[in-house]
Design brief:
- The structure holds 2 protein chains of 2 kinds.
- By secondary structure, chain A is α/β, with parallel strands linked by helices.
- Chain A folds into 2 domains: about 1-215, P-loop containing nucleotide triphosphate hydrolases (Rossmann fold), CATH 3.40.50; about 225-295, 2-Layer Sandwich (Alpha-Beta Plaits), CATH 3.30.70.
- Chain A is about 40% helix and about 25% strand.
- In chain A, strand 1 (about 1-10) and strand 2 (about 15-25) form a beta hairpin.
- In chain A, helix 4 crosses helix 5 (about 135-145).
- Chain A starts with a strand and ends with a helix.
- Chain B is mainly α.
- Chain B has one domain.
- Chain B is built from 12 helices and no strands.
- In chain B, helix 3 packs across helix 8 (about 175-205).
- The radius of gyration of chain B is 22 Å and the shape is globular.
- The chains are: A alpha/beta, B mainly alpha.
- The structure holds adenosine-5'-diphosphate (ADP) and magnesium ion.
- Magnesium ion (MG) binds near residues 40, 41, 157 and 158 of chain A.
- Chain B: It comes from Cytobacillus gottheilii.
- Chain B: This is ABC transporter permease subunit.
- Chain B: Keywords: Membrane, Transmembrane, Transmembrane helix.
Chain lengths: ~300, ~280
């Protein structure tokens, strides 16, 4: 579990983090989204005990990052946004080094390392020098390194950045597997759609402030009071269209090309939406489907940051 | 060897060092530099000596030359080996990952220092065959030889700790190196110059070498100078001279040991303290 309270980080007079508050429950996959320079890496560095905050506190599994940094280090596996590798080490020596750095005995590491390499699909690269691996492979190897002491919390700073689409998908599959293992995962990105699919909770940060937080759907609701809804009907097309056109919360009613689908923008709350559906049923409209459009999360993100900049 | 887990960082450093071609090249050049000068010395000696024989006094001369030369090489190499140990990890972006492991800062700093020192020791050990010359012709006791080696080890640790400190405090390796070399040059050359200058002052005051004005400052410059300290173990007369001029009776070698022990301890202490951010303060 992660708890961040009034976390502030100042560089001179510049506030990289401004009273950040966050609570992430155990087993949650948390997506931390924000543009470059928003303060994601700063937050993660503080959680990883690499940076002292100017004020405020943060707890990892109940351990204070400032007062008990050693305990915190046991709890977390940290992957920086930019990292390097030692050029004269082989993949398994690389993992041995970090394993030993966590005090894991040699025999145990010998058992662990093949399993980890298997998990990140690098078994075939066990004896390759790490600096010769592709960027995606290095990223996965680094992920294996994060896991070597079996931490409860993973803090991954933009693990998918700089990867080609294939490597991205591969990374995502591994993260999904880790999710099933019950780890608490914090993962940051400046591209929201990359995260949406696998996250239980999302926090949006802008200029050091948390501007939105909640489930993907929550954020969607919060960010735009309006949704795009598609309704399919078997018959009575005209009747249905006029029914929706009469609703005060509905605008831009359109008939789609297939002559069965109606599209409109809805501004009402969830309760009002339920009432609308009930009404339609009472009217006996032959509706076969009523669905919200899966909005492109990137659009939402653009909207948030736009809103913040304006205020 | 695989089961012989000393310490993760040390283990890794050894691996990297002995996989690097540069390390072997370093040993080679080190021996070449020493060897060429020795051979040159022997050659010049044999020219001036009609029988081509090597006498014990000359053997002692050569030992002194070899030892001072070795000291110069050590002082030249130590900053280069140590002033990048932390900053280079920072530059290669491997430091953060090392710092998030549960290894203590003490263990990381000491491993880095020990690793650099080990390589320098290897250089010294590799140079030992060159000394066989000296023993062949006599004039030098094994005790003198051991003293010299102990002196090297002590000096390497001291200057190495300073290099590690700069590497920890200064973000850029290049700046850290320049600082470390600058300080080493001052401690090895600058203090010798100061000593000579201040002693000259003492002579000038009185005009009579047997009745000098005491200049205690010369002592403080001399006690920091590794070359004077080492040379003093060969030729005690120069120490007597310094005692004479400065009026300080305390043995110079002891002052050297004490001052550099304090410097070493301070450098290691601050390196350990500054490796990770100061968390307690907040
Ligand atoms: N060491 C530093 N000194 C001064 N400013 C910094 C430093 N590190 C980060 N910043 C600034 O803090 C802000 C947040 O940076 P960061 O947390 O890296 O953002 P993100 O990871 O979201 O892209 C940026 O504006 C960055 O320029
Ligand atoms: Mg970042």
């Amino acid at each position: 579990m992660i708890e961040i309270m009034n976390l502030t980080k100042e560089y001179g007079s510049f506030k990289a983090l401004d009273s950040l508050n966050l609570k992430i429950e155990k087993g949650t996959v948390f997506g931390f989204v924000g543009q470059n320079g928003a303060g994601k890496s700063t937050t993660f560095s503080i959680l990883a005990t690499l940076l002292a905050p100017s004020s405020g506190t943060a707890y990892v599994n109940g351990y204070n990052v400032q007062k008990e940094p050693r305990e915190v280090r046991k709890q977390i596996g940290y992957m920086p946004d930019f990292f390097g590798v030692y050029d004269q080490l082989k993949a398994d020596e690389y993992l041995h080094f970090y394993g030993a750095s966590y005090g894991i005995p040699y025999q145990e590491r010998e058992k662990l390392i093949p399993q980890l390499l298997e998990l990140v699909n690098l078994s075939h690269k066990r004896d390759s020098y790490v600096d010769l691996l592709s960027r995606g492979m290095k990223q996965r190897l680094c992920l294996a390194r994060c896991l070597i002491h079996d931490p409860e919390v993973l803090i991954l700073d933009e693990p998918a950045s700089g990867l080609d689409p294939r490597a991205r998908i591969e990374m995502r599959e591994i993260l999904k597997e880790l999710k099933t293992m019950g780890k608490t995962i914090l993962i940051s990105s400046h591209i929201l759609p990359e995260l949406a699919e696998m996250c239980d909770q999302i926090g949006v940060i802008d200029q050091g402030k948390l501007v939105a937080e909640g489930s993907v759907a929550d954020i969607q609701d919060k960010l735009r009071g309006e949704k795009i809804i598609f309704v399919k009907v078997q018959s009575s097309l005209r009747e249905t269209v006029s029914f929706f056109e009469d609703d005060p919360f509905i605008s831009n009613v359109q008939l789609m090309d297939d002559d069965h689908t109606i599209r409109f923008i809805y501004k009402g709350s969830a309760e009002e939406q339920t009432a609308l559906l009930k009404n339609a049923m009472v009217k006996g409209l032959p509706i076969t489907s009523f669905a919200e459009e899966e909005a492109d999360l990137e659009d939402i993100f653009m909207e948030i940051t736009k809103g913040v900049e304006m205020s | 060897m695989k089961n012989f887990v000393i310490n993760p960082v040390l283990n890794k450093e050894f691996k990297l060092r002995f996989r690097s071609f540069k390390s072997y090249l370093g040993i080679l050049f080190y021996l070449l530099a020493l060897g060429i000068i020795i051979i040159g010395f022997v050659f010049i000696q044999s020219l001036s000596n009609s029988f081509g024989l090597f006498k014990p006094e000359e053997s002692k001369m050569m030992f002194m030359l070899l030892s001072m030369l070795q000291l110069a090489l050590i002082l030249f190499i130590t900053p280069g080996l140590t002033a990048g140990v932390i900053s280079s990890e920072r530059e290669r972006q491997t430091l953060n990952m090392m710092l998030t492991t549960t290894q203590s800062s003490t263990s990381i700093i000491l491993s880095k220092l020990v690793s650099a020192i080990s390589y320098l020791l290897l250089l010294i050990v590799a140079s030992l065959p060159l000394y066989s010359f000296v023993f062949l012709y006599g004039g030098i006791s094994p005790a003198q030889m051991l003293t010299t080696i102990a002196f090297y080890v002590f000096t390497i640790i001291a200057f190495g700790s300073l290099g590690v400190l700069f590497s920890t405090l200064i973000r850029k390796t290049i700046v850290s190196m320049v600082t470390a070399y600058g300080l080493t040059m001052f401690l090895a050359g600058g203090t010798a110059f100061l000593t000579l200058l201040l002693m000259q002052l003492g002579y000038n005051y009185s005009g009579n070498p047997s009745n000098v004005q005491h200049v205690p400052f010369a002592y403080f410059a001399a006690m920091l100078n590794p070359a004077i300290a080492l040379f003093g173990t060969f030729e005690p007369e120069i120490i007597d001279e310094i005692t004479n001029v400065t009026g300080i009776e305390f043995p110079l070698w002891a002052a050297y040991l004490i001052s550099y022990t304090v410097i070493t301890a301070g450098a290691i202490f601050f390196s350990i303290k500054k490796l990770r951010p100061n968390m307690k303060k907040g």
